[in-house]
Amino acid sequence: MKITTIGLGYIGFPTSVLFAMHGHQVIGVDVNRRVVEMLSRGTVHIEEPGLQELYQEARVLGNFQVSQTPSASDAFIIAVPTPNRDDAYKSCDLSYVKAAITSVVPYLKNGDLLIIESTIAPRTMEDVVRPMIQAAGFTVGVDVYLAHCPERVLPGNIAYELVHNPRIIGGVTPVCTEKAKKLYASVVQGALISATASEAELSKLMENTFRDVNIALANELAKIGGDLQIDALKVIEMANYHPRVNLHAPGPGVGGHCLAVDPYFVAAAAPSFSPLIQTARGINTSMPHYVVSLTEKLMQDAPTQKIAVFGLAYKGNIDDTRESPAMKIVALLEAQGFEVAKYDPHVAIGCLTMKEACSGSSLILVLTDHSEFVTISEEATACMALPHLLDTKNIVKRMAPNVNYMNLGNVYHYTKSC
Fold first, then answer.
1. Domains present along the chain, CATH in parentheses
2. For residues 255 and 336, what is the distance between their CA atoms, to the nearest angstrom?
């Protein structure tokens, strides 16, 4: 089958490679010229284990082409960003989705399949996408088949999870569902779950909302522990010995284009019935400010005003900084007048080495759980003006004995008198 994918980002590109590896003829489309040029040279533009090798294989097979414009195909997969709008509830901005649909409509013909993989607000397929296709003269479910098939993958393990995870197939009509299932059955080994488009939309959103709400509970517990001078991390560890309890870990906030974005789409769709979701969002968005307040207290009597920030990506071992709380924390610290040395071995921003970031600093602030931060170099901390370390991700396990180690469970020992 010939497939055109619109959007070659963290989901669209691996998805395109997957279909190409399974014998489909794929045209990957992106409006970003730099992305198209890099892929044309055979170089992937995102960090994801194994993806470069898979792309090289797809190119050898001759099944993958890249372009800035669509062309006629049998199936169209739209995987473009859906950011928040600047309104009261940060609702779903569908401008990229609408633009992508508009770009492929001239190439649609009877029998084609159009799939939206982008995360979208509830009822988008019924209330927005279906009318656009009907306005182009097609009868949905008869001439053209529409489905929402959201991804559910973990960055850092995308290639495996695209194949093995269960997949929700939400057709606008039952026939649409079956057409989309047939396509995904050619590449997915996990279960293919039939659903309506609206069920698929809300299910995807609630998967991420569940995690966001539970992380908010852990973050609230971290604040409570600090206020009551109780080690919240120890409390979580003990509580999780209960066979039916699984408290999440607190941190500096949540990021990425899932947990930090999707819950707003649900809240905006039903604001009167989503107070818990809205409260959880408020707790998690407050965490960068909470971390900055702790940092300010730790730096009150420091010999220098330099802080070494370790980690800019929103999660460990990837290069994705979208909605990263680390980036917000850096901006807040710089606005307060601190000298911030940024170090991230996965993100091409700031210092090149750990030692360079630490030189002359009075605090290491760990904001991402990269595996490189499990061990903090003694050579690096020897260059510090004051060897203090606040680990907001509880990732550091080995460091020099003279380093004063703090995390979100015990930091109250050092800030209560400030």
1. 2-190 (3.40.50.720), 205-282 (1.10.1040.10), 285-415 (3.40.50.720)
2. 22
